[in-house]
Amino acid sequence: MDAQKDVQPPKQQPMIYICGECHTENEIKARDPIRCRECGYRIMYKKRTKRYSSGCV
């Protein structure tokens, strides 16, 4: 039995980016242009995840 046949590719979920100019949140998918929908600024910052990390304590 091959376990690879049961694995489905991940869905195209949009990531949330924050504009470097106007600080609004933008949902951007993998093939979308990196540009703020409000002001058109091209420098975007990825929003931090709220995942639990057991790293440095």
TrEMBL record:
<dbReference type="GO" id="GO:0006351">
    <property type="term" value="P:DNA-templated transcription"/>
</dbReference>
<dbReference type="GO" id="GO:0005736">
    <property type="term" value="C:RNA polymerase I complex"/>
</dbReference>
<keyword id="KW-0804">Transcription</keyword>
<comment type="function">
    <text>DNA-dependent RNA polymerase catalyzes the transcription of DNA into RNA using the four ribonucleoside triphosphates as substrates. Common component of RNA polymerases I, II and III which synthesize ribosomal RNA precursors, mRNA precursors and many functional non-coding RNAs, and a small RNAs, such as 5S rRNA and tRNAs, respectively.</text>
</comment>
<keyword id="KW-0479">Metal-binding</keyword>
<dbReference type="InterPro" id="IPR029040">
    <property type="entry name" value="RPABC4/Spt4"/>
</dbReference>
<keyword id="KW-0539">Nucleus</keyword>
<dbReference type="GO" id="GO:0003677">
    <property type="term" value="F:DNA binding"/>
</dbReference>
<dbReference type="Pfam" id="PF03604">
    <property type="entry name" value="Zn_ribbon_RPAB4"/>
</dbReference>
<dbReference type="GO" id="GO:0008270">
    <property type="term" value="F:zinc ion binding"/>
</dbReference>
<dbReference type="InterPro" id="IPR006591">
    <property type="entry name" value="RNAP_P/RPABC4"/>
</dbReference>
<dbReference type="GO" id="GO:0003899">
    <property type="term" value="F:DNA-directed RNA polymerase activity"/>
</dbReference>
<dbReference type="GO" id="GO:0005665">
    <property type="term" value="C:RNA polymerase II, core complex"/>
</dbReference>
<comment type="similarity">
    <text>Belongs to the archaeal Rpo12/eukaryotic RPC10 RNA polymerase subunit family.</text>
</comment>
<dbReference type="GO" id="GO:0005666">
    <property type="term" value="C:RNA polymerase III complex"/>
</dbReference>
<keyword id="KW-0862">Zinc</keyword>
<keyword id="KW-0863">Zinc-finger</keyword>
<protein>
    <recommendedName>
        <fullName>DNA-directed RNA polymerases I, II, and III subunit RPABC4</fullName>
    </recommendedName>
</protein>
<dbReference type="InterPro" id="IPR039747">
    <property type="entry name" value="RPABC4"/>
</dbReference>
